[in-house]
Amino acid sequence: MMHSVYKCGGRFKKVEVEENEDIISNLPSCLMDHILSFLPTKYAVATSVLSTKWKYLWTSITNLDFDDELLVEPINPQECTEQKLRSVEMSFINFIDRVLLHNISYLHTFRLRCTRSYDVSHLNVLVTTVLARKLHELHLFFQMEYYNGLAREVFTCTNLEVLELVGRFVLNVPTLVCLQNLKILLINKLGFSDDESIHRLLSGCPLLEELSIKRCDLKNISVLCISAPALKSLVINCWSKGGYKLVLNTPNLQDLEYYDYVAKGYLMNKLNGLVNADISLFLRHEVVHDNSVEELVAEFVEGISEVQRLRLSYYDSTKLCRSPLPIFVHLTCLDISCKNYLNVFWKSLLDFLESSPQLEKLIFAGLLSQEEVEENQTTYSWYPPEYVPSCLLFHLKDIYIRWFKGEIDELKMVEYFLKNSKVLEKLMIKSFIDRKSAEICTLQTLPRGSEKCRVVVF
User: Fold this and answer.
1) Distance of CA 209 to the CA centre of its chain
2) Sign of the dihedral defined by the CA atoms of residues 22, 26, 31, 33, in that order
3) Taking a C-beta distance cutoff of 8 angstroms, is the pair 147, 119 a contact?
4) Separation between Cα atoms, residue 398 and residue 400, nearest integer Å
5) Helix (H) or strand (E) holding 445
6) pLDDT tens profile 268-306
7) Which of 62, 139, 342, 412 could form a disulfide with 111 if both were Cys (CB 3.0 to 4.6 A apart)?
8) Nearest-5° angle of CA 221, CA 222, CA 227?
């Protein structure tokens, strides 16, 4: 005799079961529905052949997930004709129609992934049908490039709380957008026709809390204006080569992830509540030596100066930004790295230390290998600041150094941190050299300004 415990209706229940007994079929219907909701709909429907009890169980699930790669058999290229293709595609559409015909009138989540070309009108009928069932989450993945007629009902569904759109097509946003309960908007690989298309979309989402724009084509955008008063999380990862000016009017933003080339301009309004920022800035080759880039990056850094935890990476730039930096009054954790130009990176690191009086944790990486030094024909040296930054005296507790190679100036840098960090508790070093080497052994003997400090090399 065995015991099984399950939760249903907010309460835990224990039942006795015989060995080899079909435990799953004896579970309450609410729990079986929950299990089926995690399966692709193809497999959920297939459970109808298990027994009489399972025959119609799938009709009550409220999460539907359709993927044509699961439902459509591969076609032999030698047998591939226009008629055969249309037959296969229609079998997929017909299967969805049959499921919707038997399904209950309420749906929570609908996912549709299409890797083939389908008639746009058929797809829009399906989407419109599920939207009418008080849908809360809609996820559409369309790979056909010609798709340009997303059902207008998508933009006026007042029940939607989550909307995800993925595909290589231009998103034509209608004049009327009313997504008054939408909280999460995820956009991937799409294009926008103009600046107004983004403005219309966001202005119709007054409660939007999470926005993600990834790998989108922004070539038609001159000003990427994100105006969303309730927005808490923003991701922009588009690699658009700086063809737009970024404007953020997001007073409640807490988390920002921004991976892109340096834009044509930045206007960041009232990011006073910013908690986390993960930033990677890149330069187009044609502007590497353009002095205006320094001003642009300074605008961006100024805009995020209220952040509490910052991860910053920058590449192919001779300068991070102009000095002096703004004061990062709330910054407690800094993770900074740079590819190329080590002297500039170390200078930027010290600038951040001097501008971050409350810093408690420091992580940095990006030191040049000897091969990179020779390739770039540059030398590097550690020049400590004239005055010890206040964060080293009063707040800095953890330092983590990546890509340590044991160079003389690296040792000088570590010696400086150990000697001047008065409350340091741990210095961790990820090294590329033998942990028993003379350079590593030297680290353990360096004088320390904090009695609590431990040096860990791995």
Assistant:
1) 14
2) positive
3) no
4) 7
5) helix 438-445
6) 987 999 999 999 988 765 554 455 777 888 889 999 999
7) 139
8) 80
Tokens of 46: 């297939």
pLDDT at res. 1: 45
Residue 15 confidence (pLDDT) above 80: no
Peptide bond into 74 cis (omega under 30): no
Q: For the chain, which domains are there?
A: 1-27 (no CATH), 323-458 (3.80.10)
Distance, in Å, from the CA atom of 360 to the CA atom of 394, rounded to the nearest integer, reads 9
Per-residue confidence band for 256, with pLDDT thresholds at 50, 70 and 90: very high
Tell me the pLDDT tens digit for each residue of 207-233: 999 999 999 988 889 999 999 999 999
Strands (E), 199-241: 210-214, 223-227, 233-237
Please name which of 252, 147, 160, 138 lies closest in space to residue 191, comparing C-alpha atoms. Answer: 147
Question: Which helix (DSSP H) or strand (DSSP E) does residue 184 occupy?
Answer: strand 184-188
The answer to whether 185 and 205 are in contact (CB under 8 A) is yes
Tally Cβ neighbours within 10 Å of residue 28: 13
Tokens coding 353: 């230390």
CA-wise closest residue to 125 among 152, 86, 160: 152
Radius of gyration of the chain, Cα coordinates, nearest whole angstrom: 28
First-to-last alpha carbon distance for the chain, in angstroms, is: 50
- Cα 407 from chain centroid? 36
Token pair 């009928």 is found at 125
Angle at 427 between CA 422 and CA 428, to 5 degrees: 170
Q: How far is CA 329 from CA 302, 336, 358, in A?
A: 12, 17, 7
For residue 24, what is the DSSP state? G
Give the per-residue pLDDT at 156.
95
Q: Which long-range contacts (CB under 8 A, 24 or more apart) does 228-231 make?
A: 228/202, 230/206
DSSP H helical ranges for 225-324: 292-303
